Amino acid sequence: MTNKRQQIIEVTAGLMESNGYENTKLSDILEASGAGKGQFYYYFSSKRDLGLAVIDYFFTSFNGEILSGILSSNEDPETRLNEMLEWIVSFHQSKQAKCGCVFGNLALEMSEHDEGFREKVNEVFKIWAEKLQSVLAEMLETSGSVDSAEVEQLAQSIVAMIEGGILLMKNNQDIRILKDMTKWIRYLVGSYVASHSIP
Question: Whole-model pTM?
């Protein structure tokens, strides 16, 4: 029975990634998952309840690949930052630059209308920025002067630049936009670290 719940979540995740939350109808979910209404409501109180579970599903994957994976590896911090950027480009290239970031998409679609969705998506971005902040602080350790407030702002700016780059990439269906954005992030971080290095 638990496997059926997971199947419904996975099927819905695919539909929501392509169509968004509002355009993913319950009838589409039931048809794609092969679940009846009774079975659906056994596992989920509503489509909204399922939608929140789908965010958790996407976060589990994102966390495994990026947060607990690349950004928490034993590599040096610069390598970790570069590997994160390379993974993001590779992921969206595999999607033909069409789907965008599911968290960014849901933020645009739902944050104004549903506080539960807004809070869940916001927590994803918050955790991502915090993990980046730790990596950036490691890069600056040799300088002997780490301004934690500035590093926090830099980490948040990187997340914002990536999400903005993904949005423009999706709208233009052009992976080069995201690739260019990652180049500017590398330049921004490199310049910041260089400006804080001991002469």
Answer: 0.92
